[in-house]
Amino acid sequence: MPPLIHIVDDDCRLREALRGLLRSMDYETMEHASIETFLKADKPRRPGCVLVDVRLPDGNGLDLQARMSAHGVHHPVIIMTGYGDIAMSVRAMKAGAVDFLTKPVRDQDLFDAVVAATSRDHERLADQEDLIELERRYATLSPRERQVMALVTAGRLNKQAAAELSLSEATIKIHRKSAMQKMKARTLADWVRLADRLDGMSREDAAV
């Protein structure tokens, strides 16, 4: 399935022109005349990007970047403008825009920007799927297995974990083996990396 490009611009003729150009490049498109219609639209979960005019009736492309995450939209953004200047370009790039294109947009510049943006979004979605799978595996661990995982991946030896949990070392080994199998960790190093990713996810959730 090809990436989906969201075109946000109040100029219907420009939307049509961009739609034709992008579809000739084998991309699919959705067109939106304003920020609000884009944010309220049902958006399929698939790789893509947002191609947005910097000046719109209900705001600007830079405002849209700031509002997207609050609406659960995390596609890369490409800003278009006919009134660009260095300060606006810097603002857009610092806010995370993949590119900043000046109208009239050259076909090759648009193509290069869309390729970069959709590639980034594909990686983002793939990483999300990996994290969902990691959380699913972790949810299968028993409370005791989670305790053992936390201690061992933090650097405790089996006998140290046994002492902290008032268990035998043999019991720790049983829980450790079971937890590693459930997490699909082939080595201790793999297990530590998975634990670090889970810890990073917990810190991100706490910061939200």
Short description:
By secondary structure, the chain is an alpha/beta fold. It is 59% helix and 12% strand.
Write a concise keyword list for the protein shown above.
single chain, 208 residues, alpha/beta, 5-stranded parallel beta sheet
Report on the architecture of this protein.
With 208 residues, the chain is an alpha/beta fold. It contains 9 helices and 5 strands, in the order βαβαβαβαβααααα. The chain has a 5-stranded parallel beta sheet with strand order 2-1-3-4-5, sandwiched between helices. Helix 3 links the parallel strand 3 and strand 4 (77-81). The longest helix is centred in the middle third of the chain and has 33 residues, at 107-139. The two termini are 32 Å apart. The mean pLDDT is 90.
